[in-house]
Amino acid sequence: MADGREKEKRRVPVILLSGFLGVGKTTMLRNLLQNTTKRVACIVNDVASINIDSKLVSNRVTGTTKDLVDTIELQNGCVCCSLRDELFVSLRKLLVRAKRKRKRYDFVVVENSGVAEPSNIRDQFHEASLLHQLLLRRIYLKTMVTVVDSCRFFDEYYSRDTILERPDLGQGGSLPVVDLLIQQVECADLVVLNKSDLMERDGGGESAMGRLQECVHTLNPLAKILVATNGEIPFDDCLLNEDEDKNALMARITNEGMIRGCVSAAASKHHHGQGEEGGYHNRYGITSWVYQRRRPFHRSGSQRR
């Protein structure tokens, strides 16, 4: 066990930053680069032909932090689909660059495009691990962070639009807005409720923030939730320090796939041996059915008769 921990310490942690366009991902990354004393590598993904986010990040890297940060741009596609292979290629490039400089990165931050499906990237790391890819001897996926706009969360949660109809949230996606929002929250180890000051300014107050926290906790009861203004969070404490909390550990393991598998198995048709079909119903009058919905049930609604 100790040997395994030592090996993990020698690997470079990768932090995945997800969320819709405009929620404050780039601002959060810029704050990190401005305030950190650690050596950081960034992979900034933009589906547009010009990677605006990367330019914004690079402009922040000045003075004492300039020598601590390396940045790679991924543009004209999304790392979770069309640029899927490019993510690992870029990670290899960064490791080669670090070796050439005789430096070691303390961590790598991957800023996803607004329409990225983070579960696809998590699965990519998992598949690479199963295939014993050599790259994973040098890096590992440590923390998946999702940033949401506190003021707009419920508008998007109840939206019937698709991403194609909402270019303000990101370009190139086809999922319903609510499905992508829920997936981004479900996959996260850490959910940052950004722009909390704007919620207070708009008259939402503590009750609105409490409702938002309750909803996010329902979607992902194992994730850590932080309330932030201007993307300011205690980065080292939240992203890099080892968390002994069992819930945080379970969030990294992620039970989403197991839950969906159980629901799928229960909902699918299955066959008994001859003479066993419908045995429980015939013997005891027991029947079952499965109702699936991505949005969580409202407690008061489910208690109505």
UniProtKB/TrEMBL annotation:
Describe the location of the CobW/HypB/UreG nucleotide-binding domain by residue ranges. 13-225
On the tree of life, the source organism's domain of life is Eukaryota
InterPro entries registered for this protein in UniProt: CobW/HypB/UreG_nucleotide-bd (IPR003495), P-loop_NTPase (IPR027417), Zn_Chap_cDPG_Synth (IPR051927)
Q: What is this protein called?
A: Cobalamin synthesis protein CobW-like
Top-level taxonomy? Eukaryota, Viridiplantae, Chlorophyta, Chloropicophyceae, Chloropicales
